[in-house]
Write a structure and sequence with these properties.
It is a single chain. Helix 1 (29-47) packs antiparallel against helix 2 and helix 4 (185-202) runs parallel beside helix 6. This protein is α+β, with helices and mostly antiparallel strands. The chain folds into two domains: 1-117, DNA primase, PRIM domain, CATH 3.90.920; 125-310, DNA primase, PRIM domain. It is built from six helices and 16 strands. A hairpin with a 5-residue loop joins strand 11 and strand 12 (173-178). The protein is 28% helix and 23% strand. Its EC number is 6.5.1.1. This is Non-homologous end-joining DNA ligase. It is an enzyme of class 6 (ligase).
Length: 310
């Protein structure tokens, strides 16, 4: 099944809409396209201006996937693209998804899950997001919730930072700090690493910064590796390649207390019911951007005090 849809002045040709992408759930490529068409107004403010990596599943989520950074030559001219030099030489021509037509086109290209940079194309070396990725152990999502509130105590109450939450749609949770573009990636990553090390020392039984799984035991992994140039993170409201089509969903701190909340609570089938009764919790995230300088001083004092006490 194929058809053409028009968004503003742009016509998008859609194909194979009846191909099943989520076999157990029965969701088709058409369902994926419809979802991204409908979520566009809410999702676009969180991804526009950011280089995008496509995770594509041409034959559905149970078949081969591939990560694609470079926009293929056959992508239409109306899709915005930006070329960035690679350290090893050459360049990569990234998609910049600024409109509904592009988002729908990518879904039609079997891009189930778009990932985005933590910086924007106009200042690629200056991140405007800092992410703490909470990767659970075997203990599951309850341990993630507990850790999130402990991390909130440090970041919000002691360091004075705004922290926004997002279920990943997979297993964990992202804690996101919106930043003024005053810092380099190295500075942001160093801060995130220092904060994570401090948390690891404060909660040694439940949190770890060990990258190797065999060293984590049953502790939650504090992953801050995404805070680096050209690294990506799952986009807010992106669909994950998991049966049921769960969605990476911004939530607020009150929701995190709900006993039945999981990383996969929201899907392409129930997300709009949620958004019909509740605004996007990240709607005003841009109004809360901060400089890290004061928080860095406070963190260094906490680390120094901890060293003295031990």
């Amino acid at each position: 099944m194929s058809e053409k849809r028009t968004y503003g002045k742009t016509e998008v040709e859609l194909s194979n809409l009846d191909k099943v992408f989520f076999p157990d759930s029965g969701f088709t490529k058409g369902d994926l396209v419809d979802y991204y068409e409908k979520i566009a107004d809410i999702m676009l403010p969180h991804i526009e201006g950011r280089p995008l990596t496509m995770i594509r599943f041409p034959n559905g989520i149970e078949d081969k996937r591939f990560f694609q950074k470079d926009a293929p030559d056959y992508f239409p001219e109306w899709i915005e693209k930006r070329s960035f030099d690679k350290k090893e030489g050459g360049s990569t021509n990234y998609v910049i998804c600024n409109d509904q037509a592009t988002l729908v086109y990518l879904a039609n290209q079997a891009c189930v899950t778009p990932h985005i940079w933590l910086s924007r194309q106009d200042q690629p070396d200056k991140p405007d997001r800092m992410i703490f990725d909470l990767d659970p152990s075997k203990k599951g999502f309850d341990a993630v919730k507990e850790a999130a509130f402990s991390i909130r105590e440090l970041l919000v109450e002691e360091l004075g930072l705004p922290v926004f939450l997002m279920t990943t749609g997979s297993r964990g949770l992202h804690l996101v700090v919106p930043l003024k573009r005053d810092h380099s990636f190295d500075e942001v990553r160093e801060f995130a690493q220092q904060a994570s090390k401090y948390l690891e020392q404060k909660y040694p039984e439940t949190m770890t910064t060990a990258a190797r799984k065999e060293k984590r035991e049953d502790r939650l992994f504090l992953d801050v590796a995404r805070n680096a140039s050209a690294q990506t993170s799952v986009a807010p409201y992106a669909v994950r390649p998991i049966e049921g089509a769960p969605v990476a969903t911004p939530i607020d701190w009150v929701e995190l207390k709900k006993p039945d909340l999981s990383a996969q609570s929201y899907t392409i089938k129930n997300i709009f019911r949620r958004l019909g009764s509740k605004d996007d919790p990240w709607k005003d995230i841009e109004k809360h951007k901060v400089n890290l300088s004061e928080a860095k001083k406070k963190l260094e004092k906490l680390i120094e005090k901890t060293s003295e006490d031990t």
